[in-house]
Amino acid sequence: MADAKIIDGKAFAAGLRARVADGVAALKASHGVTPGLAVVLVGEDPASQVYVKSKERALVELGMNSFDHHEAADMAEADLLALIDRLNADPAVHGILVQLPLPKHIDTQKILARIAPEKDADGFHVVNAGLLATGQPGAIVPCTPLGSLLLIRDTLGHDLKGKRALVLGRSNIVGKPMAHLLLQADCTVTLAHSRTVDLAEECRRADILVAAVGRPEMVRGDWIKPGATVIDVGINRVPAADPAAGPGKTRLVGDVAFAEAVKVAGAITPVPGGVGPMTIACLMLNTLAAACRAAGAPIPAEAAL
Fold first, then answer.
1. Is 207 a catalytic residue?
2. Class of the CATH domain delimited by 143-278
3. The two domains 32-121 and 143-278 share their CATH topology (first three levels equal)
C-alpha cells in the first residue's frame, strides 16, 4: 500500500486567507465596514506573545483592523472585565479574543463569559457552544475544529454522510465541538478519551480519526483503519530525535505516530504544517463572519455551518 496523502494545511490555509481578504474587500465596498478584531494579552508569556503577534500580523495582511491590548501580568480581574465591556460596546470591534492562559488570579471562565457571544471570535462562549451542540444557526465555531472540518471536506468531499468518525479527546476547545461538527455532517461519531476501554480497537473502526488528546504519538500505526483520514491536532514538544542536535534541543510531534500512520492511512495531516496554520486562518474567517452579521451582509460559505 502506498503511503498516505499528506494533507497540506499550510497551503489550504493560505487559500482560505486569500478568500477572507477578498471577503474583507467586498464588505468594505458594499457596506463601508472594515472587520476589526481586538486581541487582549495579559502578561508576558513567551508562547502567547508569539501567537498574538502572528494574529495581529495576519489581520493587517488581510485588510482588517487590529485593536491590540497588551496588559501587565498584575492587571486586576475587574479591570479586565471593564476592558471587555468597552470592547463589547465598540461598534468598530467585531471580534474579541482573550489570549489564554490568563494569570492565575483571574477567573478564565468569568472573562470568557463576559465577551458578547456575537463577538466571541474564538467560539468559546457557552452560548456559541450551545448553538453548535443543538445544531442552531449563527454559532461561532472554535477555530481548530472548524479548520479540521475544512481539511476533512477538502480531502473527502463535502458529503461525509455515513462516515464513521472518532474524535480522541473531549476538551471544550477541540474535542466536543469537533464531535458536534461531524454529527452535523451526518457522520456516525464516537467521542473517545484516555479512559475509553479498548481505545485502539475503537480507533480501528474509524473512517475519520481526529486526535486531540495532547499525548505525544499516542495513536500508533496499527490503531488506524487502512485508508482512513487522520487529522492530528496535537502539538507536543519532545526531545530531539538526533542526540547530535545538542542538549535541550526539541522537536514538534503530534498525537499520532506519523512515521507509522503514514503507511496505513489514506490521508494524514503532518505536525507541524497540518492543522496549526488553519487555526489562525479560521480566526480571520470568524472575524469576517462576525462583521458580516453585524452589517447584515451574507456570511462566507465556509463559516456557514
1. no
2. alpha beta
3. yes
On whether 235 is known to bind a ligand per the annotation, the reply is: yes
Strands 36-42 and 5-6: unpaired
**Contact (Cβ atoms closer than 8 angstroms) between residue 42 and residue 71:** yes
- The predicted pLDDT at position 18 comes to 97
105-164 confidence digits (pLDDT tens): 999 999 999 999 999 999 999 999 999 999 998 999 999 999 999 999 999 999 999 999
Residue whose grid cell is 487529522: 231
22 is catalytic: no
**Which stretches in the chain have pLDDT values below 70?**
1, 242-246
Catalytic residue among 8, 10, 49, 55: 55
204: which strand partners? Answer: none
What confidence score (pLDDT) does residue 231 get?
Answer: 98
Annotated catalytic residue 99? yes
Query: How many CB atoms are closer than 10 A to CB 267?
Result: 20
Q: Around 7, how many Cα atoms within 13 Å sit in the side-chain half-sphere?
A: 31
Using a cut of 0.90, tell me whether the model's pTM lies above it.
yes
The answer to whether the annotation marks 164 as part of a ligand binding site is no
Residue boundaries of the structural domains of the chain: 32-121, 143-278
The single residue of 120, 122, 207, 232 carrying the catalytic annotation is 122
- Does 111 belong to an annotated binding site? no
Q: Which CATH superfamily is domain 32-121 in?
A: Leucine Dehydrogenase, chain A, domain 1 (3.40.50.10860)
